[in-house]
């Protein structure tokens, strides 16, 4: 079946920006001690793609038994954005990504589905000069399962012709929930999490393109 639609996660798929967010979370919680900062990083790595809003709620409850108000969550998220936005904008691309986007964006339909807030991913993608390649940029507070179903319905997409490129369990879960094809982008932070994954995987976009051609998917 030929692929006509691709949903891209962003961090770790389009940009090598996973470590930028890991470092920012560590920086925010290191004042409370190394053990808490280490737990924060471990949870973040094992729950990639979960929005920062949900992560902050979880950590504040777990470590400080604190139920955050919406305003308090927003303050933490804004501080995180200040730490991380420029690092993400300036991070390296995943090898071959921009060439893939340039070569195929007129042959296929592309969207971003990310745990990053929608308003923030719009800034990041624009500053990286990638916005012309994507029909829509979809982020938190809505989760990825919401967005896959929303886009399928909005654009009347054939699920069998739609591929989700991700590097986190939330990406895989969303693809499975919406009955889409899934390709795992491997990186240093997820290789242990996906050590037993035997499905479609790729290290960079040159490898992805070769695999799609070999599978007669493009």
TrEMBL record:
Pathway it works in: Organic acid metabolism; glycolate biosynthesis; glycolate from 2-phosphoglycolate: step 1/1
Coiled-coil region list: none
Top EC category: hydrolase
E.C. number(s) listed in UniProt: 3.1.3.18
InterPro entries: HAD-like_hydrolase_sf, HAD-like_sf, HAD_2, HAD_sf, PGP-like_dom2
Superkingdom of origin organism: Bacteria
Pfam families: HAD_2 (PF13419)
Substrates-to-products reaction catalysed: 2-phosphoglycolate + H2O = glycolate + phosphate
Family membership: Belongs to the HAD-like hydrolase superfamily. CbbY/CbbZ/Gph/YieH family.
Protein's name according to its UniProt entry: phosphoglycolate phosphatase
């Amino acid at each position: 079946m030929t692929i006509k639609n691709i949903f891209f996660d962003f961090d770790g798929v389009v940009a090598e920006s996973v470590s930028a967010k890991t470092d920012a979370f560590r920086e925010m919680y290191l004042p409370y001690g190394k053990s808490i900062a280490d737990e924060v990083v471990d949870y973040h790595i094992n729950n990639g793609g979960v929005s920062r809003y949900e992560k902050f709620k979880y950590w504040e409850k777990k470590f400080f038994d604190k139920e955050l108000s919406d305003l308090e969550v927003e303050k933490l998220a804004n501080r995180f954005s200040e730490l991380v936005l420029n690092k993400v904008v300036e991070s390296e691309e995943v090898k071959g990504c921009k060439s893939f986007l340039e070569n195929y964006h007129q042959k296929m339909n592309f969207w971003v589905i990310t745990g990053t807030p929608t308003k923030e991913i719009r800034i990041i993608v624009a500053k990286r000069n990638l916005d012309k390649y994507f029909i829509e940029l979809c982020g938190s507070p809505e989760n990825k399962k919401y967005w896959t179903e929303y886009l399928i319905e909005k654009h009347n997409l054939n699920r069998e012709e739609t591929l989700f490129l991700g590097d986190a369990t939330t990406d895989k879960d969303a693809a499975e929930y919406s009955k889409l094809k899934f390709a795992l982008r491997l990186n240093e932070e997820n290789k242990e999490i996906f050590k037993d994954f035997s499905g479609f995987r790729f290290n960079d976009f040159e490898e992805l393109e070769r695999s799609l051609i070999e599978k007669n998917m493009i």
